[in-house]
Amino acid sequence: MKLNLFIFILIFFSQFTFAAEKTVDPNQIHKNLRCLVCQGQSISDSNSDFAQTIKLVVKDLIDEGKTEEEIYSFMSDKYGDWIVFRPEFNIQNSLLWILPYIVLIFGGFFIFSFLKKRR
Amino acid sequence: MQKIIKILILFIFLFVIGIFYISLKRDTNYDTSSLINKITPEFKIISFDESNFYTRDDIKKNNYILINFWSSWCTPCRIEHPILMKLSQTKNLTMLGINFKDKNTQAIKFLSELGNPYDLLAKDKNGKQSVKFGVYGIPESILINKDLIIIQKFVGPLSFEDYNNIIKIIE
């Protein structure tokens, strides 16, 4: 029992340690940024001049200690929400975020009432 | 129940058609609207001769400022150059030229051939400063007022229509 508790505490605190050490991954950011001069490519996929510049800027922002969200916010601020593949929640795109949940609830309700009626 | 299903199918059909209609009509090209009416970002850019740096404070000495991103290797920059030369004759406008990812010798040759319209000349060797202004290709020009508010952004070479537009704003 004591051993189990010890292992639990060890794993629990190691999670915190990993969380604290978590660094911003530039590749992840590159994948989530759209190359504005390419056809459907991300910054990560593209070797265009624009993509190279954005990679340099992302590196600088990470070195300045900016978080992933702050970097997306910076890019959206300069180029609009179009540059981010996963845009932040706002009034304009609220439907995009909320609709799947509405469909899920209505769909669930529909299936439930359909099955109930069949019985 | 049958009625509800029919209404639901009709609703989904209309919704899909609506989404297609909006998506096809939407201009997915880069939109400058996110920068208009915003304050000019803070910047520190090296002068072309590398003797000093220019900041926001250096550009607000006149009522209006036009920041133009250009390069000698950019053909549309040659096309817009006569318009920049005409704009340089207006008194109410300070022009900051930012030479973008260019070779010094080529840039000097370009200006000696076509004339230098800029009051201040800087360079952005790796393009990092241009990202602060939301530039993604050149030429691009940004019109700023004395309060450092971005009034207009011109993507691509300036046309005579743009010239008239700028003159109308600054006079």
Order of helices and strands of chain A: HHHHH
Averaged pLDDT of chain B? 90
- What's the name of the CATH homologous superfamily of chain B? Glutaredoxin
- Number of helical segments with 4 or more residues of chain B: 6
Q: Please mark out the parts of chain B with pLDDT under 50 across 5 or more consecutive residues, or reply none.
A: none
Describe this structure in words.
The complex is a heterodimer of chains A (119) and B (171). In chain A, 66% of the residues lie in helices and 0% in strands. Chain A folds into two domains: 65 residues, Helicase, Ruva Protein, domain 3 (Orthogonal Bundle); 27 residues. Chain A is an all-alpha fold. Chain B is of the alpha/beta class and 171 residues long. Chain B has a single domain, classed as Glutaredoxin, CATH 3.40.30. Chain B contains six helices and seven strands; from the N terminus they run αββαβαβαβαββα. In chain B, the strands form two sheets. A five-stranded mixed β-sheet of chain B has the order 5-4-3-6-7. A two-stranded antiparallel ribbon of chain B has the order 1-2. Chain B starts with a helix and ends with a helix. The mean pLDDT of chain B is 90. The chains are: A mainly alpha (119), B alpha/beta (171). The interface between A and B is medium-sized, with 21 and 19 residues.
List keywords for this structure.
heterodimer; A: 119 residues; mainly alpha; Helicase, Ruva Protein, domain 3; flat; B: 171 residues; Glutaredoxin; two-stranded antiparallel ribbon
Can you lay out the helices and strands and say which pair or pack?
The complex is a heterodimer of chains A (119) and B (171).
Chain A: H1 2-21, H2 26-31, H3 49-63, H4 68-79, H5 94-118
Chain B: H1 2-25, E1 44-46, E2 53-55, H2 56-59, E3 64-70, H3 75-87, E4 93-100, H4 104-114, E5 120-124, H5 128-132, E6 140-145, E7 150-155, H6 160-170
Parallel strand pairs in B: 3-4, 4-5
Antiparallel strand pairs in B: 1-2, 3-6, 6-7
